[in-house]
């Protein structure tokens, strides 16, 4: 089999600096574990806009379609706030998701033992937390038509359309049930079926797909109650299945429960390609953090863990992924901390590069 | 001025039993504070469906339009889960909101000192919390057309429409700024302007309205970040302004931060009527809690505090509202607890009626 290919899109803000550390990790796997990757790098988001006037160049899009996996840093920043909607940094990311048809966004919300104190929640509420959120990523209100700002009488009206077909719901649901089979066999599907017809269809399809997974316990929850339950008792959940917009909010809520956003990776998966690998994009859950960009303060772990997810979901290297995850746990257990993980006791935080080096050492 | 009128709609589940306690409080104000109300009672939700086959009878709707304020308990229950969308208990509540044009939903998320330990969040994160969420309540995806489940090719598609006109956004924003002027003069407006055009219009109108309130500090936040920030550091907020669907989720998230859902009231306000009072409906944030309904276990305080909000916002009796709120604080400080407020230490909880009596005593 030929060397697997990886497209790296560092993007904006802290994206480039955390990605530098991921490159070290990729190189380590090539040198020490005989896992070489054919790595190329390109621009996305504001960085692409600055060079090309668009947040994703067509050539980059074409390249993303060809490679085995894409690894993205982060997009956006205040510099681009006044840009027209159609060329905002976010549109680059959304175009990748849509054109690669990455319908299943996997967002683990895991609380690392060494960091349980960082949560704003009580330790016993979050210690050992391990949820997987499966968010539909290519449809819903993010992409539904009609959309826009229109004149109506003597004022304007802003319109977006929530739209889900049965097959769109079905494939996202199937991804959730497949994951649940390898976890604790529970899926909780969240929508607003009490007020939205799209939620009624969602619930119906989730129920139908669930019949193919009799071992998995399926429950349904209104999304507002879901937000409450995440705050009240998050450990009741195993896999949460939800749509694009609810998933955006609920996964961020879940991420914050862990107290360490700088630690959380994500995978966005599509249909299998000719070589059997799914179309895939991996990115940290955190944003571009413009306030600390370029200062070497950012925590590279979320992005490194995103590469671990790539090892597991794109390259069938579950053991190597676990090796990397264990190395990170060991680094944390040893007390190594970037600035975002410093408690009130203080101390001197590690720089982005120092944290990357620690991970390499632990490997 | 004639005796103010109050329509009481106990609804389903624990609605009737908590409302019984509110009646005691209303009677007390009539007897002791010379604040008599002309009280009538009617059905809503499943209770109305059982009698009339619809979750809100036209006569009840007409009566709600005439009275000075409506006080609602809760709607819904598993018994009605299989009902057609158009006659579900929730439709009764949504019809009231829509036809009374109650565009500003005020949801305080307040953490009571005596109860700070109940939160799943660390005490220092929530102690003293006092946020007011202003949720637009009559538009957005809750009511936008087209909506429904349609055939498309050989499958079905679920569609809902997010729709906001400038004037709809403006009146909700104005309500938020007015409240901020009487509070800590900060408004944070939440939307997804990075992915939704309706969010762009929302942000633009909120900014324009803000110019009329130069003393108020206006900020904008994407709703997903809003959910994160609520969990991370909720005390950074004063007034949060948001749309119907985001408001549904974010206000429930905020409510759960306080740890005591059985304590939280809400007010839904519309335009001033001929007598100068706003159209108004008051209801607790908690639901119908079918699991404990009819057992005398429910906490009546959220519903009693909803009546306090009625005193303040409908009847210009801010001092009397404060009197009632202080009585409740005193009751809590004395250690009185319903089952939902019992800590792990245990003890014998008060019944719904006993808690109502304590409030009367404290008054
Ligand atoms: C950057 C933005 C477009 C994106 C989204 O809304 O999906 C982000 O919040 C996310 O969750 O990945
Ligand atoms: C009962 C339901 C229709 C309602 C809503 O979604 O608005 C409830 O969740 C609320 O927040 O008042």
Automatic annotation (TrEMBL), chains A, B:
SMART domains (alphabetical): Iso_dh
Positions annotated to bind NAD(+): 77-90, 287-299
Record-annotated Isopropylmalate dehydrogenase-like domain positions: 5-359
Major subcellular site: cytoplasm
Listed GO biological process terms: L-leucine biosynthetic process
Reactions catalysed, as given in the entry: (2R,3S)-3-isopropylmalate + NAD(+) = 4-methyl-2-oxopentanoate + CO2 + NADH
Enzyme class: oxidoreductase
EC number(s) given by UniProt: 1.1.1.85
Keyword Manganese on entry: yes
Pathway: Amino-acid biosynthesis; L-leucine biosynthesis; L-leucine from 3-methyl-2-oxobutanoate: step 3/4
Highest rank taxon of the organism: Bacteria
UniProt family annotation: Belongs to the isocitrate and isopropylmalate dehydrogenases family. LeuB type 1 subfamily.
Function: Catalyzes the oxidation of 3-carboxy-2-hydroxy-4-methylpentanoate (3-isopropylmalate) to 3-carboxy-4-methyl-2-oxopentanoate. The product decarboxylates to 4-methyl-2 oxopentanoate.
Protein name: 3-isopropylmalate dehydrogenase
The organism's taxonomic lineage, starting at the top: Bacteria, Pseudomonadati, Pseudomonadota, Alphaproteobacteria, Rhodobacterales
């Amino acid at each position: 089999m030929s060397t697997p290919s990886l497209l790296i899109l560092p993007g904006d803000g802290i994206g480039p600096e955390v990605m530098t550390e991921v490159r070290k990790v990729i190189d380590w796997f090539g040198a020490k574990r005989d896992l070489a990757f054919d790595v190329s790098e390109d621009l996305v988001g504001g960085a692409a806009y600055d060079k090309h006037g668009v947040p994703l160049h067509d050539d980059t899009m074409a390249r993303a379609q060809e490679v085995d996996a894409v690894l993205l840093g982060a997009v956006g920043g205040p510099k681009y706030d006044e840009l027209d909607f159609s060329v905002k940094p976010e549109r680059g990311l959304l175009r990748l998701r849509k054109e690669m048809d990455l319908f299943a966004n996997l967002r683990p919300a895991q609380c690392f033992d060494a960091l349980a104190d960082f949560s704003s929640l009580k330790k016993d509420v979050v210690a050992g937390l391990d949820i997987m959120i499966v968010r539909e990523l290519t449809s819903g209100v993010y992409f539904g038509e009609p959309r826009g700002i229109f004149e109506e009488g003597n004022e304007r009206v802003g319109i977006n359309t929530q739209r889900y077909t049965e097959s769109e719901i079905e494939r996202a649901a199937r991804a959730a049930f497949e994951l649940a089979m390898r976890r604790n066999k529970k899926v909780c599907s969240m929508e607003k079926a009490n007020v939205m017809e799209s939620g009624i269809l969602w619930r119906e399809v989730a129920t139908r797909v669930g019949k193919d997974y009799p071992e998995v316990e399926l429950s349904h929850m209104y999304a507002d109650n879901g937000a409450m339950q995440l705050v009240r008792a998050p450990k009741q959940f195993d896999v949460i299945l939800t749509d694009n917009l609810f998933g955006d909010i609920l996964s961020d809520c879940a991420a914050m429960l862990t107290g360490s956003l700088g630690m959380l990776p994500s995978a966005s998966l599509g249909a299998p390609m000719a070589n059997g690998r799914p179309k895939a994009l991996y990115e940290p859950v955190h944003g571009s953090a413009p306030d600390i960009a370029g200062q070497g303060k950012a925590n590279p772990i979320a992005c490194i863990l995103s590469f671990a997810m790539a090892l597991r979901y794109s390259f069938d290297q579950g053991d190597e992924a676990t090796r990397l995850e264990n190395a990170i746990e060991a680094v944390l257990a040893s007390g190594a901390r970037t600035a975002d993980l410093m408690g009130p006791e203080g101390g001197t935080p590690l720089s982005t590069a120092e944290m990357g080096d620690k991970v390499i050492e632990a490997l």
